[in-house]
Amino acid sequence: MKEHLESMIRNQIEARGVRDPRVLEALRRVDRGLFVPSGERSLAYEDFPLPIGYGQTISQPYIVAIMTELLSPSPQSKILEIGTGCGYQTAVLAEMAREVYSLEILSTLAESARKRLASLEYSNVFCRRGNGWEGWPSEAPFEGILVSAAPEVLPSRLVEQLAPGGRLVLPLGGFRQNLVVIYKDFRGNLEHREIFGVRFVPMTGKEESPDNS
């Protein structure tokens, strides 16, 4: 396992330009094989997404790495993740940040991820079922927000819950998606940067109007 994990990091992640040593070390500490279904274990260290049931996937290792590097969480960061899935990205974030609050709209996935992360002793992770469009307002603001599914439009509640100086990393779009980094300055202004084209499962749920909140 260790040699496969190290090969994954060296050949699929470092070779493609991810350089942040904290990201690389976090990936070394999180065994991707523990987060994929048993029938997919032989493919756990390959650089492509894998099905985890319910029409969802675990992202390819390079995408997890680059999104984490773009988010750049610090040991003091409070992070919001939208789309817990199997919990792999959650665990990588938990290795780097102070706290990770993770929402998953599918109750079965939310519960299985919660149990898996607890069994791995991630005491700084808080998972629950929830509509990602609404975020986690009672715990806001967040220094970083990472979205693991693609909304067609930027979720306004997530922008509101992003702390000044924070970053929001997400795939954005419908048929054509781009990985986007949104930086909020200390005056509340937003700076958008497109990284490259991606393909994520659509973000489900919906954004409620303020009148319905």
Give a written overview of the molecule.
This protein has 213 residues and is of the alpha/beta class. Helices cover 28% and strands 27% of the residues. The chain has helices at 2-13, 21-29, 61-71, 88-96, 107-119, 156-161; strands at 50-53, 56-58, 78-82, 99-104, 125-129, 142-147, 162-173, 177-184, 190-198. Strands 5-4-3-6-7-8-9 form a 7-stranded mixed sheet. A two-stranded antiparallel ribbon has the order 1-2. The longest helix is centred in the middle third of the chain and has 13 residues, at 107-119. The protein starts with a helix and ends in a 15-residue tail after the last strand.
Molecular shape: globular
What structural class do helix, strand and pairing data support?
A: alpha/beta
Question: Helix and strand string, N-terminal first?
Answer: HHEEHEHEHEEHEEE
How would you name the oligomeric state of the polypeptide chains in this document?
A: single chain
Strand order of the largest sheet: 5-4-3-6-7-8-9
Straight-line N-to-C gap:
47 Å
What is the β-strand count? 9
Could you estimate the helical fraction of the residues in percent?
25-40%
Q: Helix segment count?
A: 6
Low-confidence stretches: none
Spatial extent as radius of gyration = 16 Å
The pLDDT mean sits at 93
What does the main sheet amount to? 7 strands, mixed
Give the percentage of residues in beta strands: 25-35%
